Amino acid sequence: MKPIQRDEIYEHLSGFLKGKGIELKEGTYANSIQKGCTLLADAINLSQEGVSRAKVEVDKKLDQMRQVIHEKTAPNPASAPQAAKPPVVKPKAQAKKQKPKAAKRSSAKG
Predict the structure, then answer these.
(1) What is the SS3 assignment for 107?
(2) Domain ranges of the chain
């Protein structure tokens, strides 16, 4: 935004009032209005500068926050090769479970 000239608001106000049928003539009342308009223009300009500086600072902090989030959520380079390897599958001990052979009973015939 372009800065407002110190007498710009007063000129616009004078033109607006003149269109409504009110003319500001030189005098204490007109001087007070002109000083008020000058203060308003200065306040607007200073506020705009402050907002611009605050925006720059907020952008810096936002970039820092994004960087921290990126560092915390990005995958580690050391873990990336491990993820590429296929998972190690342990072979099963026996494909089929074999039932233990039944012990032969010796019949005691006597």
Answers:
(1) coil
(2) 8-76
Give the angle 77-82-88 at the CA atoms, nearest 5°: 175
CA torsion sign, 73 to 75 to 76 to 82? positive
- Which CA distances in Å does 26 have to 12, 15, 16, 30? 16, 15, 17, 6
Query: Which amino acid is present at 46?
Result: L
Do the Cβ atoms of 8 and 41 come closer than 8 Å?
A: yes
Q: The tokens 């607007």 sit on which residue?
A: 44
Look up residue 26 and give its DSSP letter.
Answer: S
Per-residue pLDDT of the chain (110 residues; tens, 9 = 90+): 789 998 999 999 999 999 999 998 889 999 999 999 999 999 999 999 999 999 999 999 999 999 999 998 988 776 555 555 566 666 666 555 556 666 566 555 54
Question: Does this model's pTM top 0.85?
Answer: no
3-state helix, strand, coil in the chain (%, to 5): 60, 0, 40
